[in-house]
Amino acid sequence: QVQVIESGGGLVQTGGSLRLSCVTSGLAFSNLAMAWFRQTPGKERESVAAISQAAKITHYAPSVEGRFTISRDNAKNTMYLQMNNLKLEDTAVYYCAPGFRKPDADFRAWGQGTQVTVSS
Fold it and tell me: In 3D, which of 33, 18, 34 has the Cα closest to residue 92?
């Protein structure tokens, strides 16, 4: 079955860095655009970064552009998010899913996400 597993979150101070990983199975990974989404209390999931199937096109939310870098390794069916210069407002649960600025409408196999907590 389709499965995505996020990891790499943790507790960091402002200005710190984390590298998130998304390991997938059961997906035609190399044929899909993929994205990272985050969710905070009281808000819907929002796209923070996305990458096309061959990594030729990327998208970043304005709030993270210049600080986050999305990448993928199609041979490993894995996507990454390098997060630098973290800010308090980056605190959220981070999820990965097929999609770009929005998740694919037919994707239902959301993982548990990985918690990122930024403190001052």
Answer: 18
Kindly state the tokens that stand for 8: 């790499």
Helix (H, G, I), strand (E, B) or coil at 74: helix
Q: Each residue of 9-37: pLDDT tens digit? A: 999 999 999 999 999 999 999 999 999 99
Give the list of residues 6+ apart from residue 18 with CB closer than 8 angstroms, or none: 8, 9, 10, 12, 83, 86, 116
**Which tokens is 118 given?**
């930024």
- Give the single-character DSSP code of 45: -
Is residue 68 exposed (0-12), middle (13-18) or buried (19+ Cβ within 10 Å)? buried
Between the alpha carbon of residue 29 and those of residues 65, 72, 110, 112, the distances in Å are: 24, 10, 15, 19
pLDDT digits (tens, 9 = 90+) for 56-93: 999 999 999 999 999 999 999 999 999 999 999 999 99
